[in-house]
Amino acid sequence: MFSHSVDTMSQTVRIPHIDSLRGTAVLLMVMVHAAATWNPFSQVQTSPLAYVISGLGGLAAPLFVTLFGWGVVRTDTPLSSRVVQCLFFFVAQIAVNLTSPHLFHTFTPGILSLMGVLTLLVPATYSALEKHDIRVFSFFFAFTIVIQLLFSDIQGTGVWEDRTADNTLGVIISNLLFTGTYPVFPWFVFAFLGAMISRQKTASGRSLNLNTSTGMWIVFGLTYCTLTLVYSQMNQTLWAHPTEDALLTFFPANPSFLVAGITGVMLLWVAVQRFKFNFLASTGKISLTIYLLHFIPLTLMRDYEVTHQWGLQISSLAVLLYTIMWVPVASLWLYRWPRANVESLLRMIRKSLF
Question: Which structural domain, as residue segments, surrounds residue 46?
């Protein structure tokens, strides 16, 4: 996701609505982390508002990874350069973990380590299968669903402590590949979705074709989500929840989540492509910087809702203000210090080594 995979920002023409999509993704990620930090409730909330907030927040990571897949296949980058980028993401993941010790251990795999692996995995795999006229996204989506249905335990449990554990090398590798917060399986599906979108031949100003295939998938996804929501209401069960026993779960990312996530990503992509949302472009240009920095205030203020006895209204206002504030911060940052960001640091490292 991060600025054409933070590959060739200075060498390629930027696409405004892609930067806006990146901005959307990072703001949704900030929102969901802030909402989880300043949550005044100890019980599961099933209100319509909770579903809306959770739904939008739940699309942050799928959109992140899809945009990353979109960018990582767009440039013919040497393997040595991709290795450097992969290592950079792993170091960045450790930095995130160290700034959020209440959530992660030092070597807990997360979304940045996932992107590190995908930096090496997606370009080579997509190119190899594409040469044999294989529809890569369809292949991996079907493969993933079959594996999930046949081997339901492969992704581990919904216990947060297990998904963030780093007590042994074997546990770290398992959480990186299958059982962590953002394991390579099944999250590579979103990266291959982005790669497929990137390979499309589109009209000027577009990055996603509004064709029959796109329309059919959106209709299917919306129909599936509606039917499962009605089913959950009729049977008085949870429809969606990060970890609880529900039809759609984030940890682990089950088949229903994959369908909902892909559908949501396409809807967001179509909306931002159509309406631009240029005010989010600056946020998207330094999305990696914002992602790394936004954990620090949350860590420092993680007990505010308890200390100051925040209710739902105050907590919601705090989440909203904390999320929105990154829009002007990003604009001011790029105006005053255009090269003082993590994206520029990675480019500098790559230029110095190659």
Answer: 3-353
